[in-house]
Write a structure and sequence with these properties.
binds S-adenosyl-L-homocysteine; alpha/beta; two-stranded antiparallel sheet; 12 helices; ten-stranded mixed sheet
Length: about 375
């Protein structure tokens, strides 16, 4: 069941070698007359020693190095900008890809270690009305290797300080479940013990609520943390904030979350962005608690004070009101936290990342 999707709909020709999962690389080696165990060596060079040139893979034969060079690139991202927040805890990277499109990646320092927020698509077509990432629509999908590369690029920056990326959140630009196969390949590679080896429990995937993919993802039975952006407790309000709700309204979404709870035995996080006068009343907190109980869900609620996006009109809920919302959930027996914020001064906070149109600027 778990391996069901491996290699299914993914193209055979991969631009970056980082796009090859361990199993795909083994198959490629066999197809090219090489022993399978070379996959372990190649993974170690790529992800542990982190070389960027096939020539440096000195325990491979010259012939194999040539074949690799003919078939794949290693690096497909160029760092264009690297910015640090004033408190030094957040760094934003702007990377340019082979075709000139740029993507953003954020590194955050927490008390428990370093986490990386990766981008899953160039732009986004989900259209949430409070989010900057969707403003220019979807430009193109990312290959899994372009997502893996983001982590490696950031890890290289940390190598200089002798530090290690300890967790990953799929909460940058894009909707991971609108690029499902590549995201699954990405998860396999970063989780692989010969790869970057980040434990599944240190990885969080967040979706706007593409229901069929929630069922698929539950069936993968991965141990990764799973979050759903809820943001509203009625279809009317949610459809206004998130047009995706018209296709997948609450009566479809919530049973899929229940299925996820039951199939994986894991709790799900509801992200709830508090927007002044929109969705932040005590009645809405009560309705949220009721929804969770009515559907018998195992949920942790993460309250996000909404971040300002110049093109959008939403204002932040008052501090006292945020606490009131939190208290109401707690009183109703709901597990809840308020998200700590970082990176405002470099526009690296939730919902502030945007796909830059560098491609059209440079051509
Ligand atoms: N497409 C995925 C990942 C997106 S980003 C998803 O929708 O879940 C991660 C979180 O940031 C989501 O919960 C998203 O709704 C939230 N977000 C988007 N814009 C925001 C903003 N302006 N302020 C606060 N949170 C925002």
């Amino acid at each position: 069941m778990k391996k069901k999707r491996e290699k299914s709909n993914r193209p055979n020709k991969r631009d970056s070698i980082y796009s090859m999962t361990f199993d795909e690389l083994q198959q490629w080696l066999v197809d090219n007359g090489e022993p399978k165990f070379r996959a372990t060596q190649i993974f170690e060079w790529l992800y542990q020693k982190r070389v960027e040139d096939f020539e440096d893979m000195t325990n491979l034969s010259k012939g194999l190095r040539e074949k690799l060079k003919d078939s794949f690139k290693i690096t497909t991202l160029e760092t264009v900008v690297q910015q640090k927040s004033s408190d030094g805890r957040t760094m934003k990277f702007l990377f340019e890809m082979n075709d000139g499109y740029t993507i953003e990646t954020v590194l955050m320092k927490h008390d428990y270690g370093y986490s990386v927020c990766v981008t899953s698509q160039v732009g986004c077509r989900i259209g949430c009305t409070f989010c900057a990432s969707t403003l220019g629509g979807l430009k193109r999908q990312l290959e899994s290797g372009e997502i893996v590369s983001q982590v490696l690029k950031v890890q290289r920056a940390l190598d200089e300080q002798g530090e290690r990326v300890s967790s990953i959140v799929l909460m940058g630009i894009g909707e991971p479940f609108d690029n499902y196969e590549e995201i699954m390949a990405f998860l396999r590679t970063i989780n692989h013990d010969k790869g970057i080896n980040i434990g599944a429990r240190h990885i969080t995937l967040s979706t706007s609520g593409i229901v069929p993919r929630i069922y698929d993802f539950a069936n993968e039975k991965l141990q990764v943390n799973f979050a759903v952006s809820l943001h509203a407790v009625t279809n009317e309000r949610r459809s206004k904030l998130m047009p995706v709700n018209k296709a997948f309204p609450l009566e479809k979404l919530l049973p899929s979350v229940k299925y996820y709870n039951e199939t994986t035995g894991r709790r799900v996080t509801f992200e709830y962005g508090l927007m002044g006068g929109e969705n932040d009343s005590v009645e809405e907190a009560q309705a949220l608690a009721k929804l969770i109980k009515d559907y018998h869900l195992n949920i942790h609620v993460n309250l996000i004070p909404v971040n300002f996006v110049p093109e959008r009109n939403y204002v932040r809920t008052e501090r006292s009101q945020i606490f009131e919302f939190e208290r109401t959930l707690k009183e109703n027996g709901i597990n809840v936290t308020i998200r700590r914020e970082q990176g405002h001064d470099i526009d690296a906070a939730c919902g502030q990342l945007r796909a830059k149109e560098r491609k059209s600027e440079t051509r």
